[in-house]
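INTERNAL AUDIT FORM
Audit reference: QA-55
Scope: verify that the stored structure record matches its stored sequence.
Auditor: D.O.
Record contents follow.
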Amino acid sequence: MFSNLKIRLAQVEDVSSIFALIQALAEYENLSNLVTGSADNLAKDIFGDDPCAEIIVADLNQIIVGFALFFTNYSTFLTRRGIYLEDLFVLPEYRGYGMGKRLLIHLAQLARERKAGRLEWSVLDWNDSAIAFYEKMGASVLPDWRICRVTGTALNDLADLVP
């Protein structure tokens, strides 16, 4: 339907649009209060001297309507690198047209090119439409795994422990 849609690597000039999408994602997930970063930090972390992640965008007529942020992880069991998808988001008014699918396919192609052992991500348990989409794309939603996270004060407290 959208013949002008391009899935491409993000460029530094896309950062403000991507950060606006990050804020829209947080709002969608009812987590806006957790967004404490900035477009400047995102630019430094993606395009600076020591990039820690990559971003692909869904560019429709030079408007960024979706993105996927990802980075390399490692599987000790496979002894191979993988790609971890941190966030995939398409603006609500552009959903249902295959943009999320094209972003995910592009990531799978990158994983194959890079000889990655797997492509993985997390999904919120209440997000039934996302779970259904991911399963339709061939993903297995692992019921036995839970994400562990240490952040903020808890991270500082853990770092201060004496081994």
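Auditor finding: record pair retrieved intact. The mean pLDDT is 95.
Action required: none
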